[in-house]
Amino acid sequence: MAVYLDCNATTPVAPSVVQKITDALNDEWGNPSSSYELGVKSKKSIEEARRHIAMMIGGKPEDVIFTSGGTEVNNIVIFGIVDYYKDWVNSQSSVEGINEKPHVITTNVEHDAVIQPIKHLEKKGVIDVSIVPVSRRGCVVPQDVLSQVRHTTCLITVMLANNETGVIMPVEEIGREVNSQRKKEKLIRILFHTDAAQGIGKIKVDADKLKVDYLTIVGHKFYGPRIGCLYAHGLGHETPVYPLLHGGGQEQAYRPGTENTPMIVGLGEAARLVCENLSTYSRHMETVRDYLEEKLKEAFGEGHVTFNCSKDVKRLPNTCNVSLAGEGLVGHVVLSKCSCIMASIGAACHAQNKPSGRILLASGVPHNRAVNAIRLSVGRETTTDDIDIAIEDLKQSVTTLSCNKSS
Amino acid sequence: MAVYLDCNATTPVAPSVVQKITDALNDEWGNPSSSYELGVKSKKSIEEARRHIAMMIGGKPEDVIFTSGGTEVNNIVIFGIVDYYKDWVNSQSSVEGINEKPHVITTNVEHDAVIQPIKHLEKKGVIDVSIVPVSRRGCVVPQDVLSQVRHTTCLITVMLANNETGVIMPVEEIGREVNSQRKKEKLIRILFHTDAAQGIGKIKVDADKLKVDYLTIVGHKFYGPRIGCLYAHGLGHETPVYPLLHGGGQEQAYRPGTENTPMIVGLGEAARLVCENLSTYSRHMETVRDYLEEKLKEAFGEGHVTFNCSKDVKRLPNTCNVSLAGEGLVGHVVLSKCSCIMASIGAACHAQNKPSGRILLASGVPHNRAVNAIRLSVGRETTTDDIDIAIEDLKQSVTTLSCNKSS
């Protein structure tokens, strides 16, 4: 009896998404740039998917570009600022900024798909970076971000919700402030990006309300396939996008390469499901997650269970980051002794089972609790029966480990 | 009754490939970096696919990196040389080359996915480029390529087979020469790349025999899904690869982003089919293509049909590029009056139905014949019955156009 509690790593693919992909593989394999019916039909399906994505985030279809995934989107946005800054300097009559580097602001709890491209450019010496630490509640403080703004700041990137703790960041507040900063003349327009990978499908994401210029969408976090989208508010006219890849003219030449029609229509269907059912999904996940947390306290005793997300911050409805007290109860060891639970201790992207602890430590979790942390992230189909099984599984694991230790 | 003759634009997806993808969407959606069974299973399937890809091109699995497609592979290779050259200059004790740019050699009939990234870097002023014209037979002459080599040359990129004419390029001969040039000391190692998109699944492609450092593999040209692979001979130790994207550690950190397991296993299955059946596929396509060319001559008269690929060069077994003589018989117009044939006049990537004529003109085809050109590319399932229907369709189109003209 397996219980999947790792929806923040990846979700299953919704049955109707699988169906859409399979149908497209069979019937919509024509090259979308071809002028005959088979191609035209594929193109139409892609545009329908684009409309669903746009609807899901309250944007315009023409502002949505399909990519291979979230990593690519974040790289497009971050690498783009080097050219963006150069173009701005060249457009200025004064020489101010000409010998300076573009400046980027981000937080210390971002995903590697944001941190690594930033570090790469910093190491190459082409950008300056300010990394804003989150508060001890795991949440970034808008004023801490905004106080870092310089006259060379051209990008602020703050995740919508953290993948490990589930903390929802004050992106809307930062967006509002960035927007008002823009009123100042003669400065470069600060571009504001959020990686919304963990938000979409769990909480309402409205790009307009968030006042972001760029937003990253990742299919496999909301029951879609492993591709993604870049949303850019007023793409090309209000918000510049500098393509990372060069080739054919697909995706308005912002992202060339023959379109992956089956994956795109699958992503569109996943977006359609979110548009129709978000509040149901969200409520369900919250109920199950809250049940999980209650049962954890019951099973191990309140004093032995600590949740690594402050009560004072908004958090995702599906994420429970928990540490069981006890010297041998290291997160990945506890999980390895479970026979039913499939879960992880954090982002899966790196080496298997090697926790960096980076996010939790940055979020104010003390070291001994951070090493014991387990991330349990529920999904649309997780039931309270699943949770009961998971609790028994955890109890058995903890008993085994405690026996081993005392023997 | 539709007849698909556009396999160089994209192929259908093989039924067993569709099945593999669908199965993976249902059963192998776990994050391949996760340590529980669902993840481990996905990871295993990815490695199996990698072995099939390697076997198909006579390479090692560890030299294969999955990407989102051919455009991405070509961009990785081409963008990589900027850092490659910089690293080489930094490693030299002398200052030679320090104020020079890396030099790239390519041909004038490459696909946009090669030409555009090269043009982009040239326009930015970071590379020097030599574009070698092909001969009037549409084939590049090895000596013409090699005579362009300078002391700053760090990349030669020549396609394996042309998408429009079907001409197979002397990649092996160039590879041999490049290899012998490398014996000269103190020079930067020239990296040799071939975009094998149009070769794989049609002719035997052996990376070792071709003596290439990099090879581009594109799934949707051989009945696979719309992703691709970079093959790099001795990846990381013999041949440097500079990742274009930065993020998690997937694909040995050369290509981060959660692996698209379903597409990857589909690509592996497509490779397996090629490994098992290449000679059958190839013979079949050649038979059908030759039948098509005979029937074209019969239908329109030898004097009114010209094939835009010289008899003196090796060519793909599936491609027929033909011009019908007659003032009104412009390629895309003839196709638009066909009711059965799905085909195109060249690469689909650009604007629909707007022929650049670039490739044909570069290949020595005179202008009046180039505008009348139609590319008919057959596939594994194309039958001689299909060809009979296509010929009738073309005849009817030509009659309609001739009547319109005389009326």
From TrEMBL, chains A, B:
<keyword id="KW-0456">Lyase</keyword>
<feature type="domain" description="Aminotransferase class V">
    <location>
        <begin position="3"/>
        <end position="388"/>
    </location>
</feature>
<keyword id="KW-0663">Pyridoxal phosphate</keyword>
<dbReference type="InterPro" id="IPR016454">
    <property type="entry name" value="Cysteine_dSase"/>
</dbReference>
<dbReference type="InterPro" id="IPR015424">
    <property type="entry name" value="PyrdxlP-dep_Trfase"/>
</dbReference>
<dbReference type="InterPro" id="IPR015421">
    <property type="entry name" value="PyrdxlP-dep_Trfase_major"/>
</dbReference>
<dbReference type="InterPro" id="IPR015422">
    <property type="entry name" value="PyrdxlP-dep_Trfase_small"/>
</dbReference>
<dbReference type="InterPro" id="IPR000192">
    <property type="entry name" value="Aminotrans_V_dom"/>
</dbReference>
<comment type="subunit">
    <text>Homodimer.</text>
</comment>
<dbReference type="GO" id="GO:0009000">
    <property type="term" value="F:selenocysteine lyase activity"/>
</dbReference>
<dbReference type="GO" id="GO:0005829">
    <property type="term" value="C:cytosol"/>
</dbReference>
<dbReference type="Pfam" id="PF00266">
    <property type="entry name" value="Aminotran_5"/>
</dbReference>
<keyword id="KW-0808">Transferase</keyword>
<comment type="similarity">
    <text>Belongs to the class-V pyridoxal-phosphate-dependent aminotransferase family.</text>
</comment>
<dbReference type="GO" id="GO:0016740">
    <property type="term" value="F:transferase activity"/>
</dbReference>
<keyword id="KW-0963">Cytoplasm</keyword>
<comment type="function">
    <text>Catalyzes the decomposition of L-selenocysteine to L-alanine and elemental selenium.</text>
</comment>
<protein>
    <recommendedName>
        <fullName>Selenocysteine lyase</fullName>
        <ecNumber>4.4.1.16</ecNumber>
    </recommendedName>
</protein>
